[in-house]
Amino acid sequence: MQNATITDKLREECGVFGAFGKEASLAELAYYGVFSLQHRGQESAGIAVSDGSSIASFKGQGLISDVFTKEVIMDLTRSNDKVAVAHTRYSTAGAKGIINAQPLVAQYLNGGIALAHNGNLVNAKKIRRDLEKEGYLFQTDSDTECILNILAKNKYRGHVSALGEVVRLAEGAYSLAMIYDGKLIGLRDPAGIRPLCIGKKNDTWIIASESCALTTVGAELVRDVEPGELIVIDESGLSSYILSDRRQDGGLCIFEYIYFARPDTTINNKSVYLQRHKMGQQLAKEAPVEADIVTPVPDSGRSAAVGYSQAANIPFTEGLIKNRYVARTFITPEQSEREIKVRLKLSPIPEVFKDKRVVLVDDSIVRGTTIKSLINIIKEAGAKEVHVRISSPPYVSPCYYGIDTPDADNLAAALYTPEEIMENIDADSLHYLSLDGLLKSVGGEKTDYCNACFTKNYFAGRIKNE
């Protein structure tokens, strides 16, 4: 296989959180809410709060706990604030660095906007060119600023019409949380590719990328924002506007159920944990094997591994221990360095693996570098056989809707057959969950989800950012 230059795992662009109400500290509420979404992005974070006329904000690079000290939260806390938005980012559009950290803030006479975006616009370059020709200025190279300038251009039309222009012009994926003239706004693209939900805590309304953020702050899940739906929250409560009935084939990114969302999240009234558990059960039916133990790749393969174990009647055992004080494993060119970084992150328990036939379960294979190192580690610990089971179909095509994936010429499944991958990673057998099996697990038809990474069926606008 080709050498990888970055981490072997897929990375989601970001998480968004917003709140409107009379909490003692909306900044603190936003901090805890976006902290629960840290898994969606680890590059930068930001919080903005508003009293309806002015916006105060703070952004920084790094993990949320590093960016927001107690002193920063105290500085952001104002007694008359009524709305807040927060963001955690991993860049897929726009360069890394503090300049592209969100929320993006624009203030003007008697109002302002603070915008947090999850997703990726596939026609951002065209929008930017058109706006620049009209004299609009850009301070960043983030596609999110295209949305900000569309809103600025159409502000005179009112917030509903201005956001309608975003839906009309923007192609691709966007779930937005924003402060807009003292209101809390939520907007989801017409295909509903990225998740967004609504919650409530006493008299405080909340929107968030995942329901796990609601649980953290003590709010109850009300419902998901519908595809193409605009949510406006102010002193009069929540108002809903359907800005597009353009229901395309495809919808929610199916990888939210496979990997991205936290297991304790609910999306479209479905428990993410239970869907992954069902994937493991279905995988056991499709790819049985004689083995002594089932073990997951922590933490991404755990839910599916439990399902596989139960369906196959093979004991589930935690054989790999994750070092939770190691940051993401950024793969370096030299094989020896790659393996050292994997060993820093995951360590085997020799007593678990000695003389055992092992079923190793994970959610996906992207480049194949990490799984190969893990198989070597497990066999060095004494395993007789390692059978790899993947709870999703082969990942054959890049994502253009807000996930950091390599080009097809760096995707293992796009370059090799499963048999060739099995040999390359030194597995004794390798099986993926079929697409039909995946859909059976999560419920629905192919046209209910975005599954372009498995099928190359790109439905949401152009696939190239042009």
Question: How would you describe this structure to a colleague?
Answer:
This protein has 466 residues and is α+β, with helices and mostly antiparallel strands. It folds into 2 domains: 11-247, 4-Layer Sandwich (Glutamine Phosphoribosylpyrophosphate, subunit 1, domain 1), CATH 3.60.20; 271-455, Rossmann fold (3-Layer(aba) Sandwich), CATH 3.40.50.2020. It is 30% helix and 27% strand. The chain contains 17 helices and 25 strands. Strands 4-3-5-2-11-10-12 form a 7-stranded antiparallel beta sheet. The chain has a 6-stranded antiparallel beta sheet with strand order 6-7-8-9-13-14, with helices on one face. It has a 4-stranded parallel beta sheet with strand order 18-21-22-24, with helices on both faces. α5 crosses α6 (159-169) and α9 (272-286) crosses α10.
Distinctive features:
Glutamine Phosphoribosylpyrophosphate, subunit 1, domain 1; 6-stranded antiparallel beta sheet; 7-stranded antiparallel beta sheet; 17 helices; disordered N terminus; Rossmann fold; alpha+beta; elongated
Would you identify the CATH architecture of the largest domain? 4-Layer Sandwich
What proportion of the residues is helical, as a percent range? Answer: 25-40%
The helix/strand class is alpha+beta
| Gyration radius from CA atoms, angstroms | 22 Å
Distance between the termini: 31 Å
Q: How many strands? A: 25
Helical segment count: 17
Please sum up the structure shown:
This protein has 466 residues and is α+β, with helices and mostly antiparallel strands.
Topology summary:
Blueprint: E1 11-12, E2 14-20, H1 26-35, E3 44-50, E4 55-61, H2 64-67, H3 70-76, E5 83-89, E6 104-108, E7 111-121, H4 124-133, H5 144-153, H6 159-169, E8 172-180, E9 183-188, E10 197-201, E11 204-208, H7 211-216, E12 220-224, E13 229-234, E14 237-242, E15 252-253, H8 255-260, E16 266-267, E17 270-271, H9 272-286, E18 293-296, H10 302-312, E19 320-322, H11 335-345, E20 346-348, H12 350-353, E21 357-362, H13 369-380, E22 385-390, E23 403-404, H14 412-415, H15 418-424, E24 429-432, H16 435-442, E25 449-450, H17 452-455
Helix pairs in contact: 4-5, 5-6, 9-10, 9-16, 11-13
